[in-house]
Design goal:
- The complex is a heterodimer.
- Chain A has 34 helices and ten strands.
- Chain A is mainly alpha-helical.
- Among the domains of chain A are: 191-328, no CATH class; 552-740, 3-Layer(aba) Sandwich (Rossmann fold), CATH 3.40.50.12610.
- Chain A is globular, with a radius of gyration of 31 Å.
- Chain B is elongated, with a radius of gyration of 32 Å.
- Chain B has a five-stranded mixed β-sheet with strand order 1-3-2-4-5, with helices on both faces.
- The chains are: A mainly alpha, B alpha/beta.
- Chains A and B meet through helix 19, helix 20, helix 21, helix 22 and helix 25 of A and strand 5, helix 9, helix 10, helix 11 and helix 12 of B.
Chain lengths: 774, 320
């Protein structure tokens, strides 16, 4: 029995039409994924965003212009001055290599594309591939229609867009694609027990290791999956072949990345994979022996052998960890479990905003309706519970914990949420789009006519109209499967359960489509308003609603580039190191590759001490210019005074006797910059540089800091050892020049006082100041 | 004649040092009699922090009596005592140059007032100002122990104080047998219990729906900001308001509300997918479809309005 008659086609026509529709839908999804990431280019311009991407871009330029060998051996003397940085051995080169290859291919085809545009558009391009990989993986879990839904979800979910808009040229740009494709091939390898697919998974795993530090997620997810399958008593030779192939090839391959080196056999993060590998070998061995020797006693003995060698292996790993042969968990990894650890021991990790825990609005913002379809999808996975569903369940648990601990790891949660939500939504559509109607329990079939016939064309047009949408593709696929079952059903009696009537179907379908529309609107709004700002260029609204572009950063960096000698060392807080190197092309003391805590603490100490204390530090490090970010004039809250406490904390970690955090608070424990500010605060170099000459802007009335909403002291700070060199249009970036030692051997404070006492002397050195007012 | 004032001065100085000596001996005796911690009175406090002291002192200013309900005080007191006890094991020569002392609010309200303290506990460090062991002026700072930085635990305290005491405090945290003991007992008991319960409980442990519920509850709780509340130590609710202002902020109760909303919405969909098609009667089925769809619609409106409170600029809304 069916609620409405569908036109009948031959099965081959249906299959062909469905596969054509699928291809069209996938292409449309890739297009949607790419174009929704172009807001940043449309609103601003084709520019590299934020901080880390600037380094990746700089490295890629080296790779593209000098070739891979030069890039591999690149020693950068301008970073971490005067230490320098061995770049080739301290990065994940996958991202740069990818853009390098694309750049070379395009040039081989005589398409003269600028390397910058390759870098800017890499992330959107790979998001299309991510959508495809998610489609393939979800197809293994349920069917094609769920796959298409998952693909469009991952394509436009803000949780993934936040890290992959055009210009956000970071490792995550390609890493999520690699994550999904590795998982997909792993599932294929496990399903088929194929050594070929296992090796292919290892190859993509290698690519992932070369591309992102988060590869440890795969390194632990696949063994965990294998281990849970073992616990569920689902050992099979398919598992054995797939896992052994993946582990052996993948580990050897991953050790070829210089930055990883021998870690896969020496650190605790990788021991789970090794342990499961050993366990699988033991179990396989026992299985083989058991198949030849059937005696009962022997089997008991084998079981004990298995237990004993398992315990022995576990103890061996523990013993090696205690004797330090295996390095313990690294701080970054450990802080995921012991959440108080980073704050106490590695403030530099805790200070990064993307390492903060996630509050619930962030989840809803990034995933919208997917977040509540997600548990429903997980339950449906439990209903099936094949091997691949176990994988999704483990993935769901781990990723939701990690995303709760660190905002940044929302990125790993998004794919699994998309898959589970797609399973749930596609099950719903399957149920309510099927034209099958169960047999009525009461035999008087008069009720059947109550289903209004007028609704039939309406329902069809609804699904026709949405053809470009996924819902339509899913509907088509579902209709197709329903139609094929319908042809079969001719011979069989009607299904025992299903949905009665048309209006019921319509209500649910319309509600689902409504939700999808809300989701699309939400994603568009979030992407355009929250995730498409390059943070190098800021936008604000004028009172009349027109857009005001604040371009202080580039203004200041180009000033440095054009007005200072090539080897002038610039000191700034580490956040701006990559940007200075990338845009101003000047040596920096510290940058976003935070490998040397002491060096960062040195900068922190120089910023938080008084001028007299800082000056020797500055001179010893050959600092010529100091660059700070100040938002007090236009209310830019991400400025250095707001980050100042982290500088103090990090400096305190190294010099606990000289820098003390409580000294920077008022006696009542408040963080203030006004009259009540503590002495240490007022005397610190950072405070003085931020507010130097600030009250001159207010012509007599007291200066007002718009970020901290406080009035500043009437008397502004005085500088003796450094002098103002440049201040950008909105005062966001201020650059100071460090004075050289006094030629007469006086200390600079006395010299300055001497000069100040003879104000009318014509030889007053004011040339630089005049340059500013001009 | 001219000798006389000089003589007097010397005498006075001797007398002064004798007084100091006497009170030093007294302090040593007091410390030894109370496990290394001197129980202070206002007069003793003044003697201990006299401006001519030849010793340093770490003084805990606290409010231990139950009427003040100062739970940090009671939390910190054992750590302080443990560190003081560790200090009493140092050879007498160095030990007597540094004292641990405690002053309760009940005993010395005037001292609290004089120091301008409005909260407890406070641990104040007074360096030696005179005598042979005095440190160079730059390191001779009075400071109060930073609880935020070093925490309430004894090892943090010992570690921080060690850089100011004459010799480092030989504090080793007592080996904590408790978790090992209970852990071992628990493992043993559960192994035995598991062995015997397997025939009865095996069904339950192997039941996939038990695991499904556990998994879903865990992911619901995690995606509703539970870890945020835990890590930041957010209160369950504050001053009657249930919703914290600000996008990157939330209270404990919000975790429950949001997890419940997500859970209800998810189960509404599950009901539509799994339960509704199995209802054999068309009328009842139709009613439940309309009911569940309505529930989805209403709950989603509530969720959106909830989100609009957190994010003022959010442009979309339904019903509410």
């Amino acid at each position: 029995m069916t609620v409405l008659k569908l036109p009948t086609f031959s099965p081959s026509t249906l299959t062909n039409a469905a596969s054509l529709l699928r291809i069209l839908a996938l292409a449309a999804i890739a297009g949607a994924a790419i174009s929704s990431r172009l807001f940043a280019v449309v609103n601003f311009e084709s520019i590299i965003h934020e901080f880390d991407p600037w380094f990746n871009y700089r490295a890629t330029r080296v790779l593209a212009s000098q070739g891979f060998t030069e890039f591999w051996n690149w020693f950068d003397p301008t970073a971490w001055y005067p230490l320098g940085r061995v770049v080739g051995g301290t990065i994940y080169p996958g991202l740069m290599a990818t853009s390098g290859v694309i750049y070379n291919i395009l040039h081989a085809l005589h398409l003269p594309v600028d390397i910058r545009n390759v870098c800017v558009l890499l992330a959107p391009g790979f998001s299309g591939l991510t959508a495809w990989a998610t489609y393939m993986l979800t197809k293994e879990l349920k069917d094609e229609s769920a796959g298409l839904l998952a693909a469009i979800f991952i394509g436009i979910a803000p949780g993934y867009i936040s890290r992959s808009v055009a210009g956000s040229y970071d490792n995550e740009a390609i890493a999520i694609f690699l994550l999904m494709i590795t998982f997909y091939i792993w599932i294929r390898a496990l399903k088929d027990g194929s050594v070929l697919y296992g090796t292919l998974a290892a190859v993509f795993y290698y690519y992932m290791v070369a591309a992102w530090g988060g590869y440890a997620f795969i390194t632990n997810m696949i063994p965990l999956h294998a281990f849970v399958l073992l616990l569920m008593g689902r050992f099979s030779h398919r598992l054995y072949s797939a896992y052994s192939a993946w582990y052996a090839v993948g580990t050897l391959a991953s050790m070829q990345v210089p930055f990883v080196g021998f870690q896969p056999v020496q650190t605790s993060e990788h021991m789970a994979a090794l342990g499961v590998f050993g366990l699988l070998q033991l179990i396989a061995f026992v299985e083989i022996v058991r198949s030849y020797v059937a005696s009962k006693q022997f089997q008991v003995m084998l079981r004990w052998f298995l237990v004993a060698s398992g315990i022995a292996g576990g103890l061996a790993i523990v013993g090696l960890t205690i004797t330090k042969t295996i390095a313990p968990w690294t701080g970054r990894f450990y802080s995921l479990w012991d959440t108080g650890y980073a704050k106490k021991y590695i403030p530099i990790i805790a200070s990064v905003s993307e390492h903060q825990p996630t509050a619930w609005p962030a989840f809803f913002m990034d995933l919208h309706m997917l977040i509540f379809l997600f548990p429903a999808g997980v339950i449906l996975c439990f209903k099936e519970l094949r091997e691949e569903h176990v994988f999704v369940i483990i993935y769901a648990v781990m990723a939701s914990y990690f995303a709760g601990v660190m905002v940044r790891l929302m990125l790993t949660l998004t794919p699994v949420v998309c898959m589970a939500a797609a399973i749930a939504l596609s099950s719903l559509l399957d149920t309510y789009l099927s034209v099958e109607e169960p047999a009525r329990p009461d035999s008087n079939g008069v009720d059947e006519t109550s289903a209004p016939g007028a609704d039939v064309p309406a329902e069809v047009t609804v699904s026709k109209k949405k053809k470009k949408d996924v819902a339509a593709a899913a509907a088509a696929a579902a209709a197709h499967s329903a139609a094929t079952t319908a042809t079969k059903a001719k011979t069989k009696p009607s299904a025992t359960y299903g949905i009665f009537g048309l209006d019921t179907r319509l209500v649910v379908i319309v509600n689902a489509i409504f939700m999808l529309v809300m989701f699309v609107l939400h994603c568009t709004w979030v992407t355009s308003s929250a995730y498409s700002s390059p943070s190098v260029v800021l936008a604000s609204r004028r009172p009349d609603g027109s857009q005001n572009i604040i371009d202080d950063f580039r203004e200041a960096y180009y000033w440095l580039r054009q007005n200072t000698p090539q080897d002038a060392v610039v000191m700034s807080w580490w956040d701006y190191g990559y940007q200075i190197a990338g845009m101003a092309d000047r040596p920096t003391l510290v940058d976003n590759n935070t490998w040397n805590n002491t060096h960062i603490a040195t900068v922190g100490k120089a910023m938080s001490s008084s001028e007299e204390v800082s000056y020797p530090i500055l001179r010893k490090h050959d600092v010529d210019y100091i660059l700070i970010i100040f938002g007090g004039l236009i209310g830019y809250s991400g400025d250095d005074i707001n980050k100042f406490l982290w500088m103090v904390r990090i400096a305190q970690g190294v010099w606990p006797d000289e820098i003390k955090e409580p000294n920077y608070f008022t006696p009542r424990g408040e963080y203030k910059v006004d009259d009540q500010a503590s002495e240490a605060m007022k005397n610190s170099l950072m405070y003085k540089m931020s507010y130097y000459r600030f009250n001159e802007l207010f012509s007599g009335s007291p200066a007002f800091d718009r970020v901290r909403n406080q009035q500043l002291p009437r008397e502004g700070p005085k500088l003796d050892y450094i002098e103002e060199a440049f201040t950008s249009e909105n005062w966001i970036v201020r650059i100071y020049e460090v004075k050289k030692e006094d030629p007469l051997g006086r200390d600079l404070k006395t010299a300055n006082a001497f000069d100040g006492g003879k104000k009318r002397k014509p030889s007053k050195p004011t040339s630089r100041r005049r340059a500013l007012t001009a | 004649m001219q000798l006389l004032p000089g003589l007097l001065l010397t005498l006075l100085a001797c007398l002064g040092s004798v007084v100091a000596q006497a009170s030093h001996a007294e302090l040593v005796r007091l410390a030894a009699s109370n496990g290394g911690v001197i129980k202070l009175t206002p007069t003793l406090f003044n003697a201990l922090t006299a401006p001519n002291r030849e010793w340093s002192a770490a003084i805990q200013l606290t409010a231990l009596s139950p009427q003040f309900r100062c739970s940090p005080c009671t939390e910190f007191n054992p750590s302080f005592k443990a560190v003081a006890k560790a200090w009493s094991k140092v050879p007498a020569e160095q030990r007597d140059q540094h004292f641990f002392a405690t002053l309760d609010f009940l005993e010395g309200q005037d001292i609290f007032k004089r120091l301008g303290l409005s909260s407890a506990p406070v641990l104040q460090f007074y360096p030696a100002l005179e005598g042979p062991h005095v440190k160079p002026k730059s390191q001779r700072l009075e400071f109060s122990y930073d609880f935020n930085r070093h925490g309430f635990a004894a090892d943090g305290l010992a570690h921080d104080l060690s850089s100011h005491t004459p010799v480092p405090i030989p504090f080793t945290p007592p080996f904590n047998w408790q978790p090992w003991f209970f852990g071992a007992t628990f493992l043993l008991l559960s192994a035995i219990a598991g062995r015997f319960a397997w025939m009865y409980l095996g069904e339950i442990i192997m039941n996939r729906w038990l695991w499904a519920v556990l998994t879903v509850v865990l992911s619901l709780v995690m995606t509703s900001g539970y870890m945020f509340v835990q890590i930041r130590g957010m209160p369950y609710s504050q001053r009657g308001s249930m919703i914290a202002g600000g996008f990157q902020n939330q209270y404990g109760i919000e975790t429950n509300l949001v997890a419940a909303l997500y859970g209800l919405l998810g189960s509404a969909y599950l009901a539509l997918i799994l339960l509704v098609p199995r209802i054999p009667s068309p009328t009842r089925q139709r009613a439940s479809i309309y009911l569940w769809t309505g529930i989805v619609f209403v709950l989603f409106s509530i969720l959106l309005s909830f989100f609009r409170i957190k994010n003022g600029g959010y442009p979309f809304k339904l019903l509410l």
